[in-house]
Amino acid sequence: MANIRDVSKLAGVSVATVSRVLNQNGYVHPDTEQKVLKAINELNYIPNFVARSLSNKKTKTIGLIVPDITNPFFPELARAVEDVMKIYGYTVILCNSDEDEEKEKHYFQILKQKYIDGLILATASMPISDMQAFDVPIVVIDRIVSQGIPTVVAKNKEGARLATRLLLKQGCKKVAHLRGPESVINARERCEGYVDVVREKEWFHPNLIIQGNYEIKKAFHETMKLLTEQPDVDGIFAGNDLMAIGAMKAAQQLKIRIPDELAIIGFDGITLGEMIFPELSTVAQPIYDMGAIGARMLIKLIENSPVDKLYQQLDVQFIERGTTRKVCD
Amino acid sequence: MANIRDVSKLAGVSVATVSRVLNQNGYVHPDTEQKVLKAINELNYIPNFVARSLSNKKTKTIGLIVPDITNPFFPELARAVEDVMKIYGYTVILCNSDEDEEKEKHYFQILKQKYIDGLILATASMPISDMQAFDVPIVVIDRIVSQGIPTVVAKNKEGARLATRLLLKQGCKKVAHLRGPESVINARERCEGYVDVVREKEWFHPNLIIQGNYEIKKAFHETMKLLTEQPDVDGIFAGNDLMAIGAMKAAQQLKIRIPDELAIIGFDGITLGEMIFPELSTVAQPIYDMGAIGARMLIKLIENSPVDKLYQQLDVQFIERGTTRKVCD
DNA sequence: GCGCTTACTGTAACCGGTTACACACCGGAG
DNA sequence: CTCCGGTGTGTAACCGGTTACAGTAAGCGC
């Protein structure tokens, strides 16, 4: 592979001139430029990014840490990030942390060594202090970490209230909540939203809040238990779509008809919700937008452009599909 | 951030010695080593990967090009690749090509500039000549490109035959095939497998082969058309799980009972198949294994270890779930 | 004719590592 | 006592770019 010195020799100029042509900065005589371009073309020269990065301290590479790309929420987010980054000439390194602090630390270390320009986190097992010590721009998506760190989230509590109220409005007499893991902040917020709405109801009891882990399997089992122990539950608000699907499977197994006997609302709006039957009613987060906005925010941070809002809270939207009854109001 | 010269100064040795300690090569006196380690510790020094890459010409980074990470087949593959690469200290750059030749070329160019050590392709819009010109080790997964290029695939034709025979065995009288795009080789193979089995049947007619594009939506519409025009079709072998799901939705819409009136078998074995109701019977490829094996193969190619087989064809396995009738034999 | 600005170009240091080569020391074989 | 191979260490070139700085030439106003 040809390097810049080969080009400069062939063009009969110095490396500085070639570099100027490449980067379009400094003065270069049009004739000289032509000679250089011709040489570049002849040698099929492409500049070496690694060398450039070494003097620049810019790699045009960012890291994206997600818990598990296999979880249907994250591919869409990753896609958004990649799409935006591509536009601006950045490349994305994908990391799966499994919500494991050790793994996250490991990636922090590696990514730092690799001189990434920025980092997008869709996970947050990491202590905040470590994140602040990491002297590379960071944007957190879907998890609030601390006011000091640029963040993109959806209105979790508001969405949860909306869903719960909707279930009541359609006539549900006893609504349960399948909540996400204690350690995840958005799970907490969604649970709070649910509690806000049902707290005063005479039928409400804390045992209507079921502990899930954002995965189908556990949700399935817990829902089986719930529906056998408390058969009068006729509405479930699940903390995410996967758990809602787990709940649906439990109901289907128990021959409970959806939505007639049991209405279910999920949270997230992953495409998977449209692939199942009946299609899942859900509180949709703008997943792609969250990724795209986070990515744009990160680029601004990297390039020192002014960022209008370091804390973006995006609206959620209820999507009525097959697991809820129509309400005519 | 401290660099190697700072360390050498603090330890009172030369940079060469520090480098030798870091890389555990060459002779270093134990006492000297201790001094160096102490200095490294004190300065919190971590070596700069970019600089290392520049002289090494090894970045410990590979590229992974998939059509679209949003397609449920690829996250599992990506996860496998990332898991294996992590073990060996490599990092993965994720690229979405949308099966678009231009985008693929663009990534080839960028990745080359970034000095990646190897490339995994799960897409193949690229002419073979371009791939051979790319002087970096490549492994292709799920798409056969050419005998010259290391490849990991599943036994597509065999799996297709298996599925089609199974449908017949359970008593289907007229089995249609929803095929994938013409341009994708595995779609062709699966179609051939289907034709192998039904060619001789008196009911067979080429209009039982329906053109899909591996996506749900089109499969849904085409199946709607098929089932209304030829209501006697009682079995569908779909070229992938997504299309099978599209077909299921069409049947559900038309109130055709699955599997009693219509049996469906998919291909791939994506986890999505277990999330729907009824769960999808499918010819499962070992997706994770394909990724993992491909990744291991790539590492061997990169590190010049001997590779036993440059062309790995993995077994598929029929998974009987809810969209087929049990056969008692 | 002189000084000053602008256009253009080259030299060489620098980014932060790796490593070929040179050199010095030491113990054992002959 | 000399020679030799194994240890241990430093100097400096190199990877392939960027860029500060210096230098030259031309154009212009006075």
Q: What is the secondary structure topology, with strand pairs?
A:
Two copies of one chain form a homodimer.
Chain A: H1 4-11, H2 15-23, H3 30-43, H4 49-56, E1 61-66, H5 73-87, E2 91-96, H6 101-113, E3 118-121, H7 128-133, E4 138-141, E5 151-154, H8 156-169, E6 175-179, H9 185-198, E7 209-211, H10 216-229, E8 235-238, H11 241-253, E9 263-268, H12 272-275, E10 281-284, H13 287-302, E11 311-314, E12 317-319
Parallel strand pairs in A: 1-2, 1-3, 3-4, 4-5, 5-11, 6-7, 6-8, 8-9, 9-10
Antiparallel strand pairs in A: 10-12
Helix pairs in contact in A: 1-2, 1-3, 5-13, 8-9, 10-11
The structure holds a DNA duplex (30 and 30 nucleotides).
Highlighted features:
homodimer, 329 residues, alpha/beta, 434 Repressor (Amino-terminal Domain), Rossmann fold, 3 domains, six-stranded parallel β-sheet, six-stranded mixed β-sheet, 13 helices, 12 strands, DNA-binding
Can you characterise this structure?
The structure is a homodimer of 329-residue chains. Chain A has 329 residues and is of the alpha/beta class. The first copy, chain A, is built from 13 helices and twelve strands. Chain A has three domains: 44 residues, 434 Repressor (Amino-terminal Domain) (Orthogonal Bundle), CATH 1.10.260; 124 residues, Response regulator (Rossmann fold, 3-Layer(aba) Sandwich), CATH 3.40.50; 129 residues, Rossmann fold. In chain A, helix 8 packs parallel to helix 9. The longest helix of chain A is centred in the last third of the chain and has 16 residues. The mean pLDDT of chain A is 93. Chains A and B meet through helix 4, helix 5, strand 2, helix 6 and helix 11 of A and helix 4, helix 5, strand 2, helix 6 and helix 11 of B. Strand 2 of chain A pairs antiparallel with strand 2 of chain B, so a sheet runs across the interface.
